[in-house]
Design goal:
Elements: H1 3-21, H2 65-88, H3 92-120, H4 130-139, H5 143-158, H6 162-198, H7 203-232, H8 237-254, H9 256-271, E1 279-282, E2 285-292, E3 296-301, E4 306-310, H10 311-316, E5 319-321, E6 328-336, H11 342-355, E7 362-372, E8 377-385, H12 390-411
Antiparallel strand pairs: 1-2, 1-5, 2-3, 3-4, 6-8, 7-8
Helix pairs in contact: 2-6, 3-4, 3-5, 4-6, 5-6, 6-7, 7-9
């Protein structure tokens, strides 16, 4: 009924009530006089009536998550029951709504299938191209979100009953939050995998920190999603965050050792003292880094066993990263007999330096007499292996020592070996 019709009805009711209250006219009675200005009091007047729509009372927010979830579940159950009953009633509008939901869902599924088929035909170099990344994101377009979109479109077209429309809104918000969280997580993790696979300056660092970064991405994404869901089901998130802040302080004090290791792992990722695959030495141990976790780092020792050390304790050591050496410095000593001629002893450093010109993979640094030993003239030799890898450096050291042995043989220089001369007092030579 329009506002004009309501006004006429009101005027008619006013006129009827006045007619009942007026006295019966008597013959000879004077007609009622008109007021100044010509306004007839007996004439019906159309009075406009302003209709104020009822305000819908918003659902009260509560800091109790159980209470909020219970109320939302009750409303959703009631709406779902009404929706099922409405569809099962066989009404024409209900059947049309059901057909629209099924049709919109099938259309979205077909669109997803067509997009995936089209992406497969695009050229790609590997599984980490942009097309492959987009394909993985599209695969995360789940059926529950398709149904939510179909219900929302149907509600906007047909204006579903109030309770059913409320259920559709709640279901759409929940499905949207979960779907976006899955998309963000998949895109972020896939982008990191792509950076690791494609290489670059920080590829090994990303590979070392992949599990840590993935954990923090999942924690951040789903924490925000959970807060949004709680906010939409009527829970007071502000009070929850305040409570979590106080509880977080208590947990932090109780688990400060775990958090120290956690921040140490972040320090390893950001500062990059070593990466997965590096050979390191710390304290009395050394080996190859196998994995950098949230709390511990795993090292494969040279003897074969796996060493597990907390990140905090590891960073307390002085760490020698052997992999980052441009070349490995090797120092060794040798000695010649005291019977060596002084002039020959003076030429030994030059002989050794000349020898290095014919050796591959090594670089001569210095050679000189270092001390008078108990049974030899001692010399120190320092050179570099151009390949810092341990096994190849040891092979280079072996080649240098063998070359030194051959050169001294050719030059008639004798290596010293431990000898002692015993003098006996009173013993006469023959």
């Amino acid at each position: 009924m329009s506002l004009q019709g309501i006004g006429k009805l009101w005027s008619w009711l006013i006129g009827s009530s006045q007619a009942e209250d007026d006295p019966v006219p008597v013959e000879g009675a004077e007609e009622p006089a008109e007021l100044e200005g010509g306004l007839d009091l007996e004439a019906p007047v159309d009075v406009p009536i302003e209709v104020v729509p009822e305000e819908v009372e918003a659902a009260p927010r509560t800091s109790d998550p159980i209470e909020a979830l219970t109320e939302t579940t009750e409303r959703a159950t009631e709406a779902a029951t009404e929706f099922v009953g409405w569809v099962g009633s066989g009404e024409r509008e209900a059947l049309i709504a059901l057909a629209l939901v099924i049709g919109f869902t099938a259309l979205q599924w077909a669109l997803k299938w067509a997009i995936l088929k089209g992406i497969v035909r695009l050229p790609r170099n590997d599984d980490y191209s942009v097309a492959a990344l987009f394909q993985r994101v599209v695969k995360r377009f789940h059926i529950y979100f398709m149904i939510a979109l179909a219900l929302t479109a149907t509600d906007s077209i047909l204006s579903l009953p109030g309770a059913v429309s409320g259920f559709v809104r709640i279901y759409f918000v929940l499905a949207l939050v979960i779907q976006i969280a899955e998309w963000v997580q998949e895109f972020a993790v896939s982008a990191i995998k792509r950076s690791v696979h494609r290489g670059g300056g920080d590829a090994k660092a990303l590979a070392s920190a992949f599990n840590i970064i993935k954990y923090f991405i999942m924690l951040g994404v789903w924490t925000i999603a959970l807060l949004l869901i709680m906010s939409n089901v009527g829970m007071d998130v502000t009070a929850l965050l305040a409570g979590l802040g106080i509880g977080g302080i208590a947990i932090g004090i109780a688990a400060q050792g775990v958090f120290r290791d956690l921040f140490s792992s972040l320090s390893i990722v950001i500062d990059k003292p070593f990466q997965v695959g590096d050979t390191v030495r710390y304290g009395e141990s050394w080996g190859t880094i196998e994995d950098i976790g949230l709390k511990t780092t795993r090292v494969r020792a040279r003897s074969g066993e796996q060493l597990i050390i907390s990140n905090t304790n590891l960073l307390d050591y002085e760490i020698h990263n052997m992999t980052r050496m441009a070349r490995r410095r090797i120092e060794t000593e040798f000695g010649v007999i005291y019977q060596t001629d002084p002039d020959v002893a003076d030429r030994i450093p030059g002989i050794v330096a000349e020898m290095f010109k014919d050796l591959q993979g090594v670089d001569f640094d210095r050679c000189g007499m270092s001390s008078f030993g108990p049974s030899s003239l001692d010399y120190s030799l320092v050179f570099f292996s151009l390949n810092p890898e341990f096994n190849r450096s040891m092979a280079a050291r072996s080649r240098v020592l063998l070359a030194l042995y051959r050169t001294f043989k050719e030059q008639g220089i004798e290596f010293a070996y431990p000898t002692q001369t015993l003098y006996i007092e009173g013993f006469k030579k023959d």
